[in-house]
Structure formats: C-alpha cells, structure tokens
Design goal:
Keywords: Membrane, Transmembrane, Transmembrane helix. This is EamA domain-containing protein. It is found in: Endomembrane system. InterPro entries: EamA_dom, EmrE-like. The longest helix has about 35 residues. Helix 1 packs antiparallel against helix 11, helix 2 runs antiparallel to helix 11 and helix 4 packs antiparallel against helix 9. The chain is mostly helical and about 325 residues long.
Length: about 325
C-alpha cells in the first residue's frame, strides 16, 4: 500500500513535469514558423498579430464549450495584467527573430532559465537548491553548444536583436513565475483566456491588426498565424498553467529549457539549417540538465511520503 502511494505521487509529479516539458517544446517551434512567414513576405507584426488572433479565437471557443466559470473583478484585473508578460515575450522575441538567425534568437530567449531561478530565489528569499544550480550551469553550457556559439561566436550579430532577445528572456521568466502563483483556483481555460486577452490588447496596440481587414489574413497569413496560435499560445499557456503550480516555478523554468532542443530540431527539419556535432552534444547536455532536478524532486517526495507514513504508523 505504501509503495502504491509513493508510485501514485511520483506518477503525478512526472505527469505535471511532462506537461511543462511539452509546453516548452511547443514554444520552441515558433522561431522556425516565424522564419518561414518572413520568407513568404509577411512582417513580424503581422505574424505575431496573426498568432494572437487565432490563439485568442481558439481559447474563446474552448472556454465557451468547456468552462463557464465567472471571474471576480479583482481576479480578472490581475490576470489581464499578467498577460503583459506574455505579450512582451511574443513582441520582443518576434523582433529578435527578425534580426537574428532562428537558432541564435532562441539562445537569447533561453537565458530565462537562470533568470527564473534567480527570480524565485529573490521573491521567496530562499537560496536555490544545489541541484537547481548544477542544472542551470549544465543548461547554460548546453546552450553555448546547441545554439552554435561554440562554432561561430557572437561576432556580426545585431545588437538590437540581442537586446530584444534578452528582454524576451526576462519577460518569459516572469510569465512562468506568475503562471504558477496567480489565480491558481481559477479553471485553466478561464485563466488562460483572461491572460491572453490582456496580452492580445497590448500586441494590437503595438501592432495594429490591419491584416484582419486588408486581405493579408486570407492571402496566406493564416498558414502561419494558425499553427503559431496553437503552438505558441494554446498548448504552452494551458500546459504551463496546469503543470507549474504543481512542480514550482523554479523547476518549471528548468523544464522550459526543452524549448532550445525543440527549436534546433525544428530549424533542421523545417529550415534545413546545418547542425554540427557540438550542437547535438549541447542538446544532450540540456536534456540531462532538465532531468537532474526532476529525479531529485521524485526522491524528495519519496522521502517525505515515507516520513509521513512512519509518523502515521507510530
């Protein structure tokens, strides 16, 4: 019986961790899709606007079908405000992709790993666990290899792209942090719709959605906006919203590192970019860095469960 309880706890933790992992992988596909859209002649504002247009529409339909929860006005205001971090990530990351190669843009965004762990430590006033620090170091080394920096360095890169990339990293770390702490009692679809509504308002203020009326949408923008809405809004926002509150923002940030391997693999499959052996080695390091804290968490939960069982038996 005791072993079954331990197994159930471990399986639930791994399920929540898997959701965050899949959400990060989904987000990692965006840079390649955006590059394809830019290659077809669409601008970054149009592609990002299309992403939010379709993502918001899909969330509205899903919420009407499966979630009729009414928000208190305070909850609504907080969630709309939290959407600012989502929109800031999309806008600045989109601008970074427009200035940098897809595999390099995601390296800058990837800095959210150590920023997120640092943010959690500052807000909670606790020192990061040694395993988290080791994991982040492994992730950063893997980033240097996987992003191609060990092969090509940073020479000749756009400074504007680098700045936009770092801003996107900061805002993404904030998003992961707040998604695990804000309105955790609100059903996930209602919560996601509120956040994305706030984010979409900001995106449309920055990038007026002329594409809805001028024919750009039906002329081909939908081919990029629709998958980006699904992979960049629906899947990550919902999966992060379910998983991060259960495993914590620190581990959620580390699991978010799956984004870079996904981006590199997509750049090979979709953009036909060349990936060196060092980059593949970096991907292996990143996946190893992701696994370490998950194993530590499972062992920690096992020890906690055993202790509770022993106390109950005594």
């Amino acid at each position: 019986m005791h072993k079954r309880e331990e197994l159930d706890i471990n399986m639930k933790l791994l399920q929540y961790a898997l959701l965050v992992f899949l959400g990060a992988c989904s987000y990692g596909t965006l840079s390649s899709i955006m590059k394809l859209g830019i290659g077809e002649g669409f601008s970054v504002p149009e592609i990002v606007g299309g992403q939010y247009f379709f993502g918001w529409l899909m969330l509205v339909v899903m919420t009407l079908l499966f979630s009729r929860h009414k928000l208190r006005w305070k909850q609504a205001v907080v969630l709309l405000a939290c959407g600012l971090s989502v929109s800031c990530t999309s806008i600045t990351y989109g601008l970074a992709v427009g200035e940098l190669p897809a595999s390099i843009a995601v390296v800058f965004l990837f800095q959210f790993t150590w920023i997120g762990v640092l943010l959690e430590a500052v807000v909670t006033r606790t020192r990061p666990e040694p395993m988290k620090i080791i994991s982040v170091i492994i992730l950063l080394v893997g980033t240097v290899f996987a992003g191609g920096l060990a092969d090509h360095g940073l020479s000749g890169l756009s400074w504007k792209g680098a700045v936009f990339g770092m801003i996107s990293a900061i805002s993404f770390a904030i998003y992961i942090f707040v998604s695990g702490r804000v309105a955790t009692d609100v059903p996930i679809l209602t919560k996601s719709l509120s956040m994305i509504t706030g984010a979409m308002v900001v995106v449309f203020l920055m990038f007026p959605p002329a594409f809805i009326m001028d024919g750009t949408l039906v002329a081909g923008l939908w081919k990029f906006g629709l998958p980006m809405g699904l992979l960049g809004i629906i899947i990550p926002v919902i999966f992060f919203g379910i998983g991060v509150p259960k495993i914590g923002s620190g581990l959620g940030t580390i699991l978010g590192a799956a984004e870079l391997p996904a981006a590199v693999v997509m750049s090979v499959l979709v953009l036909r970019e060349q990936v060196t052996m060092l980059q593949w080695a970096g991907i292996v390091l990143i996946l190893g860095g992701i696994c370490l804290p998950q194993l530590a968490l499972v062992n920690q939960k096992k020890a906690s469960t055993r202790e509770k069982i022993e106390r109950a038996g005594a």
